[in-house]
Design brief:
By secondary structure, this protein is an alpha+beta fold. The protein is 16% helix and 36% strand. It has 4 helices and 29 strands. It has helices spanning 178-186, 225-241, 254-261, 265-282; strands at residues 3-5, 13-14, 18-22, 30-31, 42-46, 51-55, 61-63, 66-67, 73-75, 81-84, 92-96, 103-106, 112-114, 118-121, 129-134, 139-144, 155-157, 162-165, 168-173, 189-190, 195-200, 207-213, 216-220, 252-253, 287-288, 293-296, 299-302, 307-311, 314-319. A hairpin with a 7-residue loop joins strand 10 (81-84) and strand 11 (92-96). The longest helix has 18 residues, at 265-282. The two termini are 42 Å apart.
């Protein structure tokens, strides 16, 4: 999380992949409202291996006391001191030279949290919401766990937007939105391209889940949320066996599901988010896990149509085409 620190500013200035400094409001990433500062005064850029700084001004930029030649690139090192406009102006200190990183910046403390593909907020213990990257749409989505209405509750958020969750507030910092585009072009898989294999103990106290494709098999460590997915798989299987139309298969009332599972609506949604997060972290490539559990008004169902359930060593049921081990 590359950043500069100014002695008169409480919080560090985190760097965009191409970061501009200047006086022009709305046109630069870091604004310095002083007369000697040009509209776009300097640029700091990540090259893929290191950070460069380039002077674009009339009055000059200084690196460790030496004035930069205009339009020439100079490599930045940790601990460097940069002055804009005048050599005697308070120096900005280069505190970190790591590569650009997606962050959540705490609006009170200025502390930055590195973003993975899937985050539960404000923390893993008592999540109230999720923030996750959808590689299909190339968007970051924010969703409250208490929602029952489904996909309509997921809000797309972008760089610089404020995210409020409980008593916490963050700013979403995306230093290089092209990174999302690159990832999108490389991979457009969804969880529904995988077969699911559930293995449940005879007393139904232990459920394991395996994901399968012709080229990949991943066994997930057992978690409590696997039983919720198993419950939804069984509900879908019942509708398949009675010949229900595919669009109607597997829908379960949230009120019925929470009563039969003995959990609250918030706990149910938290388990769904944790299941998506576990899968997103277990697979080697970024995939869209939002379809793992589908929603419509006050109803949910397992989004994957290819699955099998084993109780002990005996197969209980099987739906769709299942990938056999290679």
């Amino acid at each position: 999380m590359a950043c500069l620190q100014h002695p008169d500013r409480e919080h560090p200035e985190y760097l965009m992949a191409h970061h501009t400094v200047g006086r022009r409001l709305g046109a630069v990433d870091t604004r310095i409202a002083s007369a000697e500062i040009s509209g776009i005064h300097a640029a700091i850029q990540w090259t893929g291996t290191h950070w460069n700084i380039r002077d674009l001004s009339r009055n000059g930029t200084w690196l460790n006391g030496q004035q930069l030649v205009p339009a020439r690139n100079y490599e930045l090192e940790q601990g460097d001191k940069v002055c804009f406009g005048r050599a005697t102006n308070p120096a900005w200190v280069v505190e970190n030279i790591d590569e650009p990183e997606n962050l959540l910046i705490d609006l009170k403390s200025g502390d930055a949290l590195s973003l993975e593909q899937y985050h539960l907020l404000p923390d893993e213990r008592e999540p109230l919401a999720s923030l996750h990257f959808n590689p299909i749409s190339g968007q970051w989505l924010y969703e409250l766990t208490g929602s029952s209405s489904g996909s309509d509750s997921a809000i797309a958020v972008g760089h610089g937007e404020r995210i409020d969750c409980g008593h916490y507030s963050w700013e979403l910092f995306l230093p290089d939105n092209q990174g999302a585009t690159k990832e999108l072009s490389m991979q457009q898989m969804t969880i529904c391209e995988f077969d699911l294999r559930f293995s449940v103990s005879h007393h139904e106290e232990h459920v394991q889940l395996q994901l399968r494709r012709p080229d990949l098999q991943v066994a997930l460590p057992a978690r409590i949320h696997h039983y919720l997915l198993l419950y939804l798989a069984r509900a879908r299987m019942e509708d398949i066996e009675r010949g229900a139309d595919p669009d109607s298969q597997g829908w379960v009332s949230i009120q019925v599901a929470t009563r039969e599972l003995g959990i609250t609506v918030n706990h149910l949604n938290t388990q769904i988010f944790r299941a998506r997060k576990q899968i997103a972290e277990a697979l080697p490539d970024a995939i869209d896990t939002s379809g793992l559990v589908e929603r419509r008004s006050w109803e949910i169902r397992l989004g994957c149509s290819n699955f099998e359930i084993y109780k002990g060593s005996q197969r209980e049921s099987r739906a769709g085409y299942i990938t056999e081990p290679g």
